[in-house]
Amino acid sequence: MNDRASAPIDPGPPRRVASVRDVSVNLAHGSGGRAMRDLIEDVFVSTFDNPTLSALEDQAVFALAGLATHGDRLAFTTDSYVVDPLFFPGGDIGTLAVSGTVNDLAVCGATPLYLSCAVVIEEGLAVDILRRVAASMQRVALEAGVAIVTGDTKVVERGCADKLFINTAGIGVVRGDVSISARNARPGDVVIVNGYLGDHGAAILVARQQLALEADVQSDCCPLNGLIAVMLDICPQIHCLRDATRGGAATVLNEFAQSSNVTIRIRETDVPVREPVQGACEILGLDPLYLANEGKLVAVVPADAAERVLAAMRAHPAGREAAAIGEVEAGEGGLVVMQTTFGGQRIVDMLVGEQLPRIC
């Protein structure tokens, strides 16, 4: 367990950790019997390696007093991951599953503490692939300071799923001096992102062999709770905060504008996009503002705190390319307007349809 988490119930003496001899997952591994137990102990329990999970109860139990030391409100989220392919430049479905759920907690000002992990495995998946994914999940969990403490395993017949689906749920605690909401944007606020947009979407295109980039574009997949903690230390009054995943930064900005009934104006020249990603979008008719990200956030902060927040972000590894890209205005509610490179302006609408399916 990480040192921020509340103490778990004592699970008693250590259990025997079984091993799986099968090369591939078969239906017996989802039967509820010994084969399933061996798979869970070999792949997940031994990798996630914490006493709460090792107890192999049907739930994880925590002391409420320990949770309360982190704040006065509980945050709870869940997400499912169905990315294709499972492995891509800069990450895999396991890094997505942990980073995505950690980030969903962190953007409301919560300290993420505990995750669950439920997997739906297609018959025939190589056990070594499961091990690689579990190892990725544990690596990111350690980086984020969270523990994976409970889970579930299901196996479906060949052809009834696509290799591996993962659901992670997360619990965190919101610190008492924070009140972040999409409804809080105010005229004069500054819009900030923590770096290059569209990298994850471009990395998935490369992995699907739908895009040949000369530069090595990696997914930006990473946990953002450390960066967000630094931002909140500088400015607990951050108004809006959200990670820009499916639908990209454009969708997040529209959600803020509509919920707060304001206009958000952004400057195309200030939006950070890598040249290879921008070039690929122009060739394919895509807009990097709508490409998925898995390690990028959009923040709306009071103007008098913007420079201090930016400086703190740029000192953190996850925010080195942080940039202020626009402001909140009191114009027509629900609009996002881009000031273009050529001096004109255009409406940045909510994403309609799906640019790239199975992106996360």
Structure at a glance:
The chain is of the alpha+beta class. The protein has helices at 34-48, 51-54, 64-68, 93-106, 127-144, 199-207, 225-234, 248-260, 275-284, 306-314, and strands at residues 73-81, 87-88, 91-92, 110-122, 147-156, 164-174, 190-193, 240-243, 263-267, 297-301, 323-329, 335-339, 345-347. It contains 10 helices and 13 strands.
Task: Give an account of the 3D structure.
The protein has helices spanning 34-48, 51-54, 64-68, 93-106, 127-144, 199-207, 225-234, 248-260, 275-284, 306-314, and strands at 73-81, 87-88, 91-92, 110-122, 147-156, 164-174, 190-193, 240-243, 263-267, 297-301, 323-329, 335-339, 345-347. The protein is an alpha+beta fold and 360 residues long. It has two domains: 27-54 and 65-174, 60s Ribosomal Protein L30, Chain: A; 190-347, PurM-like C-terminal domain (Phosphoribosyl-aminoimidazole Synthetase, Chain A, domain 2), CATH 3.90.650.10. The strands form three sheets. The chain has a seven-stranded mixed sheet with strand order 8-10-7-11-9-12-13, sandwiched between helices. The chain has a four-stranded mixed sheet with strand order 1-6-4-5. It has a two-stranded antiparallel ribbon with strand order 2-3. Strand 4, helix 5 (127-144) and strand 5 (147-156) form a beta-alpha-beta unit. The longest helix has 18 residues, at 127-144. It is globular. It starts with 33 loop residues before the first helix and ends in a 13-residue tail after the last strand.
